[in-house]
Amino acid sequence: MKRSGRWAIGLVIAGLLAVAGWRAASHQQQKKQAMAAASAPLELPIQIAAPEVLALQPQQLALTVPVNGVVQAVNSAVVKAYVAGELRGFKLREGDSVGKGQQLAHIDATEAEARWRQARLQAEAAKGQLAIAQRNQDNNAVLVQKGFISTTALATSQANLDSALANLAAAQAAADAARKAVTDSVITSPMNGQIAQRFVQNGERVGVEARIVEVVDPARLEIMAQLAPADSVQVQLGQTAELLVPGAPQDMAAVAAKVVRINPSAQTGSRTVAVYLAVPQASNSDGSQRSLQLRPGLFLQGSIITGRSSQLAVPLTAVRTDKPQPYVQVLQAAAPGAQQAPLRVRHQSVELGRQTPHQGATWVQVLSGLNAGDRILAGSAGGLREGTAVEILAPAHASGSAKAEGR
Question: What residue spans define the domains of the chain?
């Protein structure tokens, strides 16, 4: 056989061996892929109820300013002692109602009454001296006309008369002051109201200007709040507010108030501005919620409504903070444009604005990071790992599944 024939046969055999090796390697690779696919866990999407998926749209939200305030009475007074002595007859306690002019207690006025008697006797003596001086003046005037005495004696008697008049006026003034001290020993209420606080006990000796009791009028109340400098520029007269006692029951209606006064100057140290909100006397509750019984000294929290605007916002419960930046869980298709592509969870960082109550919950303004039409998971859906496949259950499917579980 020729050498060229042997070479051709060798090439053919080498080619057949190469093809056989490639087929064996390809078969082995397909077998490995099949085994890997069979051993890999099958990813099942997490089923989410339709109400737990929110489609973002601009909301008509109220622009609010947070406010913390203390309830105080418009009319209140601290009754003090105007004379020193032992306090007696003080039987009223906190919560007792009193009327204007009602006697609350009295101070032992033994010394004051003695001084009053002394002043009255001195006034009577001065009145007697005045009568003597007046008779002398009248007699001297007649004698001068008849020429029995000189005009110098008449001038002297006139000076004595003037001195007696001054002494009588001084004695009467002292008697009036002593009488006022006796009157001031009786402590009365300056207005209608209730006893809010007792500062002393019956039988104690009190001094002048000592505080005895505080009387407040609960019929007219207001809320005094301190606003931060940035918030104070947004508050104006006539704006409304809603406040509640921290920790109050859910069925307790919020207190509606109205801004009636704003302090013209800020506090020296904190730079806060005091605002005063009037509280209506009658509750405007519709009956489904209990009205809050306000009392002076109660601490309230709430917000002042400064306006309304359309803005993109999400429920505060949908914002997660387990990362350095706050984010929301956005649902988006794994392959854009694909109709049957599963939805995947993506953690989208957001820049948040102010918070405001809306639809019975707290919503927060989204300044950047989201667009209208984006679908996010509500807070009730819980936290999901980024990239998790999600399947949204239709309302009918969800109700059918619930019925099947009930059976």
Answer: 47-56+319-406, 65-72+220-307, 78-108+185-218, 109-184
